[in-house]
Amino acid sequence: MLKLYHHLISANSRRVWIALLEKELEFELIEMKLDGDQFKPEFLAINPFHHIPVLVDDDFSVVESLAILDYLEAKYPKPNLLPTAEKAIATVRMVEMVTINELMPAINPLFRQMIGLSDNDPQQIEQAKQKSATVLAFFEKLIGDRPYFGSEQLTYADIVAGSTIPWLPQMGLALEDYPQLQTWCDRLMQRPSWQTTQPSPEAIEAFKSRMRALMTQNQSQ
Ligand SMILES: N[C@@H](CCC(=O)N[C@@H](CS)C(=O)NCC(=O)O)C(=O)O
User: Which residue numbers delimit the GST C-terminal domain (predicted)?
Assistant: First the structure.
């Protein structure tokens, strides 16, 4: 059976978890604490970069969430989550890469603020908000009045962007200036795959205090 090493609060692993659920596959979830367990030799043997997610399919391990999504699509093409028409596939890849290469780094200072670290530089926070606004405006235009990015159906674009964008309001970035994205977000939240993978408020609070402790400890070293 497929095994997914993941963490409840990780957007990187949530996108794989959602894809497994959308494809209605059987899989075993292996929850990592990321409290040092990712450095144990058993885990480093499957991912020397000590990151989750990792997908293990018998004797084959895949690291990097986007590579895992491609593997799932190639092995289990139904339902199809990666279109082949030229504009649709370009849109999916654009949304995936812009989420990972532009949005996720941009929100880092907002993430630190959300977990309660007190080292926030107001200028960095302002820059983070501006960079994020550029991405959100781009996505707002790209989705237009379609139900999903690049397609009338759910694709990996929605799964990748939709594992990060719903966090933004908790980071002080309301979506009200982006009505199409807000409607899209609400639509995703109604899907069982998003509901199943949504961490509880208690899990979020526990994660914040663990991260705070870890990052404070790292800073004082
Ligand atoms: N590019 C990787 C990023 C994975 C990643 O950064 N995972 C984080 C959790 S969100 C992690 O495992 N952190 C623990 C560590 O690096 O020790 C992917 O998309 O799979």
Answer: 85-215
